[in-house]
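Limitations

Structures in this collection are predictions, not experimental determinations, and the ligand pose is part of the prediction. Treat each record accordingly. The example that follows, with 2-hydroxyethylsulfonic acid as the small molecule, is included so readers can see exactly what is and is not provided: the inputs are given verbatim, and the output is the predicted complex.
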Amino acid sequence: MEKKIVLVTGATSGIGEGCAKRFALGGYKVIITGRNHNKLELLGQLLREEYGAEVCALNFDVRDREGARRAIESLDENWSRIDVLVNNAGLALGLEPEYEGSWEDWETMIDTNIKGLLAMTRLIVPSMIERNSGHVVNIGSVAGDAAYPSGNVYCATKAAVKTITDGLRLDVAHTAVRVTNIKPGLVQTNFSNTRFHGDDARADNVYKGIKPLTGDDIADVVFYAASAPAHVQIAEVLVLATHQGSGSMIHREP
Ligand code: NDP
Ligand code: 8X3
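Predicted complex:
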């Protein structure tokens, strides 16, 4: 049987890297995408050597629509039939009250988390519709369910991911294409280091007194959704760390 193909955006770190490994382990051909060429090279090598996977690496920024289009159009017939699109690339920048936030940070989050995800969806879903087969997994967040203090614009981008995912599910309901929103809670990745602009001590503090989720934990859930029987559409999954009550309530051991 022909191997299935997954494309993961933001595969160079955290949840995306976990997804690339999990799908490689599950026998998929893996298209890893990201904006860091060296990290893509290293991950590609690891997926080939440790998982025996067939790998294709595409180096682009999801905010660059033309670059993304060129990359997707460069895929030859061995790679162009994408079965699973994991829209994972995303970030939070800053944790300040809305009246003190940075316009630049807001634009980067909106351009990446919303417009980047839309660009990839618009590029890849038409061929899924044509084949009447495929699965889009968007990485949302518990932050999209309710705002938490100083989360404002990041939370709004993830609320947008929820609505965009729900909208796509409605629009493809006449086809066999499935659409999933995975909403993680506290996952220890590079996320907080990025959010705090490289302040690693502040980033480490986010995970103090609680055992956070890992990128691999979330990758398992993504793979589970993609592996469900064809008539089963996992619409949405909220995955919290144990001892995390909600996006804004975490029980921490002293
Ligand atoms: P990481 O920072 O570890 O990974 C983020 C990935 O996204 C990196 O590969 C990064 O690449 C990539 N990325 C960021 N901006 C762009 C861009 N413009 N173009 C292409 N790739 C880009 O964080 P996570 O793995 O935690 O985050 C992955 C997703 O999970 C995000 O959408 C995040 O919002 C979401 N999420 C994270 C949670 C958490 O607690 N960690 C919880 C809920 C959701 P680069 O290395 O080049 O920056
Ligand atoms: C990431 C989880 O709670 O830090 O989306 O916003 S949180």
